[in-house]
Amino acid sequence: MLYELRVQSVANRVASVIQQFVAGMDSCALFWQMVKRCWKQFLPVFTNAGNKLTRNSFQDLFTIGWSPAGSNRREEEEATIFQWEWWLMAIQEQEVDHTFEELLVFITGADLLPPLGFPQSCNIDFYDQESGMRRIPYTSMCSLSLYLPRGVADEDQFKDLMNDALKASLGFGKV
After folding, report:
1. What whole-number distance in Å separates Cα of residue 60 and Cα of residue 75?
2. Is the pTM of this model over 0.90?
3. pLDDT tens by residue, 45-83
4. What backbone phi and psi angles, to 5 degrees, belong to 90?
5. Residue 102: other Cβ atoms inside 10 A
6. Which end of the chain has fewer CB atoms within 10 angstroms, the N or the C?
7. 127 - beta bridge partners?
8. CB-count exposure of residue 82 (10 Å: 0-12, 13-18, 19+)
9. pLDDT tens digits, residue range 26-55?
10. Which of 126, 135, 172 has the alpha carbon at shortest distance from 157?
């Protein structure tokens, strides 16, 4: 009896929130009625479809901020991007201990793609390593940017940099 009262109490609290949601949706040209009629089309919007990220879908998120073609900086950026693409392939082949979802969290703060996509494309920009210093890749979640060092041509070096960057970011924003 006590259990049934608790269940009823929770159901009543949730019911009012659901009614308010439906009323709000219907206030916009009876939008909720359309959702009810065409519910299959709205599943990706209202539910987590669970689409797994792949290397190609992940790469499609990015625009690369290249230096002018033919410059020394451009050659260094191309070497880094080659390693970036190798690393994405290694993630897909499960040769490294990271996932595309972890990488997405590192860059955007989101653990899955928004149903309607990000408001802008993600960017890959570059920075120069200072002599005698080791700076790991970093991100700006506000601008959806990933910053990679120019001129990283060694797989192991790139892998170490990315591993250190992802380890350093674990727990960001968690209390």
Report:
1. 22
2. no
3. 777 666 788 999 999 999 999 999 999 999 999 999 999
4. -65, -35
5. 15
6. C
7. 149
8. middle
9. 999 999 999 999 988 888 777 766 678 899
10. 135
Joined tokens for residue 134: 């080791």
CB 166 within 8 A of CB 98: yes
Give the integer Cα–Cα distance in Å for 45 and 22. 16
First-to-last alpha carbon distance for the chain, in angstroms, is 38
Where are the domains positioned within the chain? 2-46, 55-169
The token pair that represents 123 in the structure block:
């960017």
Alpha-carbon torsion, ordered 112, 117, 118, 119, to 10 deg: -160
Q: Which two tokens stand for residue 170?
A: 């674990």
Give strand pairing partners of 56: none
Q: For the chain, what is the HEC assignment? A: CHHHHHHHHHHHHHHHHHHHHHHHHHCCCCHHHHHHHCHHHHHHHHCCCCCCCCHHHHHCCEEECCCCCCCHHHHHHHHHHHHHHHHHHHHHCCCCCCCHHHHHHHHHCCCCCCCCCCCCCEEEEEECCCCCCCCCCEEECCCCEEEEECCCCCHHHHHHHHHHHHHHHCCCCCC
